[in-house]
Amino acid sequence: MAASLTSNTKLQLAATAVVSAAVAAGAVLSYQRLQQGGRVSRLKDSIPQPGDSEPALQSVSRVGPLPKPDKEDEHNQALAHRAQNGDFDDELILEQLARNRVFLGDAGLAALRAAFVVVVGCGGVGSHACAALARSGVARLRLIDFDQVTLSSLNRHAVATLADVGMSKVQCLQRRLVAVTPWVRFDLRLQKFDGKAAPGLLEGWEGGGGQRPDFVIDAIDNIESKVELLKYCHDEGLPVISAMGAGTKSDPTRVMVGDIGASFEDGLSRATRRRLKLLGISSGIPVVYSTEKMGAGKAALLPLAQEEFEKGSVGDLGVLPEFRVRILPVLGTMPAVFGYTVANHVILKLTGYPMDYQPAKARDKMYEAILAYVQASEEKVARMIEGGRTDVCIGLKVPLTPGDICFVVEEAFGGRSAVTGIPTKLMLIRWKKPSATTLVRIGEGKDEQKSSNMRLRDLVCMTKEEAVRHQKEVLLGDKTLEDLYSKEVIELVEASQKLAGAYERHRS
Where is the protein situated, by its record's location annotation (predicted)? Predict the structure, then answer.
């Protein structure tokens, strides 16, 4: 009986404890919810509510106010006007950027909020990059684009709606993003980028002490303008990142960041790289590109109409100097992947966040091996011309770099043997048998420097087996080029050597 009473007492005490704990927990949670609700309410109340007499946003745009603003536009523009004039609770901004703040740290977020970024090209890629930067805290954005939002833009543009069709892309971005980040200042430039306009379009921020761009984003899909932008940024020391071709791509796992000199499997990157090398720029520009290979059943560039060919040369890609010569097949998700990858790179760079990208598939070791092969071949040729003397080869140098080798192999010869088109086990070797000495001597005795008179335009790309035969039978033997190669091969080599010669004249 006593044991039973004791047991009941324990159960009652346990039940009371459980109920008390539940009541206490409920009270704590209720208090926390009230506190959170009050904080949210205070934050919302701190958003300035424009009145009927509130002035419209004094735009820094070079293209004027938004056309026919509706009630929501008027509200957002007035709110942005007040926010940009300091009438906005900074606690509210920090709350909106809280996730970035804890990720990047106070110093990182402060650097981002003080940054000035230029986005050139505000279509699929550029719009997503711009939206990500604004949402992440970048305070000054200059948007450059001459084009308008079209119906076909809506499958890939970050913020455009049906109501924006016909509006300039730069105004569309400002119109939509001020509703999200009213404190961001936009400088709109409704203009097509080209080299002549570069100094004005990439000038310092007006009213901000002439602050130079902290970063420039190249989201242009026109080769001529793209090359001019990258050349200008390179020469002026402006940090820049370039987005390559998202058209015809479908695999987001193949999108990566790498140096312009190491990108591959990307037609736009290849054409851009080739033109930059002709201008003396072979590396130092980060690019976002896809390594996805084209194949059966995958999207490809649509054929050009005959009348487009009749206009003359249309270049080697679908992205052409004549704007919109053809419609590019674009999966709407891929420009977003490219745009966010670009923005991610800019954010990490501006904030000093550690970057350990997976390295791109460069072929530096291959180029070094080819350079060594050229060196060895030149030693044999020099020894033959000098009557078999071995001393002439001691210390012989060739005036080539791995970068030169890269250009000749990848650009001049398209990464293939000029003889068979085979893309593996490639080597470079002198094409024609020299008629005179190849040695260049400077100085005497122990101070003598010996080098080969080799030039890029002297080289041909072959497989290793083809190069061994060529050396034995042409360079060290008595056979002529016509004995071994067809007229088509000889013409192909000569055309490729002209391109190598053009690069050689312009390289720095």
Answer: Mitochondrion outer membrane
Return the bridge partners of 430, or none.
Answer: 459
Token pair of 182, please?
């009213």
Instruction: Report the candidate in 138, 125, 134 with the shortest Cα–Cα distance to residue 341.
Output: 125
Chain segment 343-357, per-residue pLDDT in tens: 999 999 999 988 766
Q: Whose structure tokens read 């000889």? A: 490
Task: List beta partners, residue 240.
Answer: 216
The tokens describing 138, both together, are 């970048």
| 124-136 vs 333-351: helix crossing angle, rounded to 10 | 40
Look at the alpha carbons of 500, 394, 470, 402 in this order and tell me if their dihedral is positive or negative.
negative
CB 133 within 8 A of CB 113: no
Q: What is the pLDDT of residues 442-462, one digit of tens each?
A: 888 788 888 889 899 999 999
pLDDT score for 372: 93
- Scan for tokens 């997503």, then name that residue: 128
Q: Which of 201, 205, 269, 191 lies closest to 229, judged by CA? A: 201
pLDDT given for residue 254 in this prediction? 86
Of the listed ranges 36-40, 327-331, 428-432, the one predicted with least confidence: 36-40
Which residues, including other chains, have CB under 8 Å from residue 78's CB and lie 6 or more apart? 50, 54, 55, 56, 57
Q: Encoding tokens for residue 90? A: 């900074």
H-type alpha helices, 237-392: 267-278, 306-309, 333-351, 364-385
List CB contacts of 225: < 8 A, sequence separation 6 or more. Answer: 192, 193, 194
DSSP tag of 203:
P
Return phi, psi of residue 103, to 5°: -80, -45
Q: What are 187's strand-pairing partners?
A: 142
- Buried/exposed code over 436-464 (b: 16+ C-beta within 10 A; e: otherwise): eebbeeeeeeeeeebbbebebbbbbbbbb
Inter-residue contact 221 to 324 (CB < 8 Å): no
> Among residues 441, 245, 260, 438, which one has the least CA distance to residue 338?
245
Tokens 């053809």 found at: 326
pLDDT of residue 162: 92
* The pair of three-digit structure tokens given for residue 428, joined into one six-digit string: 């470079």
Who's near 390: CB < 8 A, 6+ residues apart? 383
Rounded Cα distance, 225 and 220, in Å: 7
Q: Domains in the chain and their CATH numbers? A: 71-351 (3.40.50.720), 364-506 (no CATH)
**Contacts of 85 by beta carbon, 8 Å cutoff, 6+ apart:** none
Q: Is 422 helix (H, G, I), strand (E, B) or coil?
A: coil
